[in-house]
Amino acid sequence: MAYKELIMRANNITRSFPLAGGGKIQVLKGISVEIPKKSITLLRGRSGSGKTTLINILSALDYPTEGNVFFKDQDITKMSEGAREALRRKDIGIIFQSVSLIPIMTAYENVEFSLRLAGYEGDRKERVEKALRLVGLGARMHHMPQELSGGEQQRVAIARAVAHRPKLIFADEPTAELDSGTARHVMKIFKDLVEEEDITIVMTTHDISLMDAADRTYVMEDGEVVGNG
Predict the structure, then answer these.
(1) Cβ pair 95, 169 in contact under 8 A
(2) Residue 229 neighbours by CB under 8 Å, 6+ apart
(3) pLDDT in tens, 102-136
(4) Which runs of consecutive H residues, i.e. helices, occur in the chain?
(5) Helices 107-118 and 124-134 meet at what angle, rounded to 10?
């Protein structure tokens, strides 16, 4: 599959953390990746491989110790924290492994609240309803989180992440707590969103069965990329 454009690239990313007794531990060791526009890219590796640390840096939640991350050719590692926050609010969506829905709000209210936080200026009602229909929850948008299955709660989290029309979505192990059938359904939703919403998705996983759903895969081990495809 040929790609005409990259939406993000990272060059020689390292990340070290200080140890309590002195010294430091290097979690990422010179990683370079390219994220094609309108695609699904997997960062695959076992727990401790560094994939969550990398996704936090790519999504502007953390800074690398060394290296650069370019979003549409703009170096986000050089941005002020205010500019990075604005980038996350407008152009980036994040789906965490824990769905973290607000338990006293319905599915609709959870998504609508995220639009308020993002400062969305369009028709919020129309956009919330469309986002929930995109993930197959049009008939359950007024249910509380405790009335939804684990897979349905994850779909609300996806709707919440895409509602403000980001260009790039990062998902950290979004299928880790789901059964294989539900995980495949979530991946189908991701592929549909790429086509219908013109977004790009980067997700971490340890599940090799999801590789066929990706356009590009980076295999991580001990803080390094050891394979790609």
Answers:
(1) yes
(2) 211, 216, 217
(3) 999 999 999 999 999 888 888 999 999 999 999 99
(4) 51-58, 81-90, 107-118, 124-134, 150-162, 180-197
(5) 120
Task: Please choose, from the candidates 207, 202, 135, the residue with its C-alpha nearest in 3D space to the C-alpha of residue 175.
Answer: 207
Q: Bridge-partner residues for 216, per DSSP? A: 41
Check if the beta carbon of residue 94 is closer than 8 Å to that of residue 168: no
* 172 φ/ψ sector (left φ>0, alpha ψ -120 to 50, else beta): beta
Q: How much of the chain is in helix, strand and coil states, percent to nearest 5? A: 35, 30, 35
| Whether the Cβ atoms of residue 43 and residue 218 lie closer than 8 Å to each other | yes
Determine the Cα–Cα distance for residues 172 and 47; give it in Å rounded to an integer.
Answer: 12
Q: Report the distance separating Cα 174 and Cα 195, nearest Å.
A: 19
Pairing of strands 200-205, 168-172: parallel
